[in-house]
Amino acid sequence: MKVIIGLGNPGKKYEDTRHNAGFMAIDKISxxxxxxxxxxxxxxxxxxxRLEGEKVLLxxxxxxxxxxxxxxxxxxxxxxxxxxDLVVIYDDLDLxxxxxxxxxxxxxxxxxxxxxxIQHTGTQEFKRIKVGIGRPxxxxxVSDYVLQAFPASERALIDEAVSLAAEASAMWTTEPFLKVMxxxxxxxx
Length: 189
Prior knowledge:
alpha/beta; 7 strands; globular
């Protein structure tokens, strides 16, 4: 089983915010491959199904971003999986809006959801699909920025990035992540 996790914050208030790029990607996968993400388990909304023939679990932690690792640790323990069996999709301030970057491991880079995952899984070695949301203008609060909805001028960029993140997740179910990473990191924007 492969686990595809999208990070975000639950509730209508946060639905289309920059910090919810991971949730948006899970919604895209759910829609494209007809895997409803409606079960409330492991302090997350989850959906089980098949993606490219591989059994997958789609996950949207409902613990709020800063505690995402708690939910993910429960899933790994219940299914007796390792962090190698998961990929996490999340927003990244250091990438221009709409850009994608895949990594096999790394530090939290200041992202609280990833900090929580590292803390609760005990490792930095898990696959990541980062969706660029850009940085706020100087003097503007980062927390206000990430909790703001995408402006209309960026909507097409983020929709394309979320679709690419969904495609990368699907490819990972049948191909080594290194191959997926090399393919999607080489796409010109």
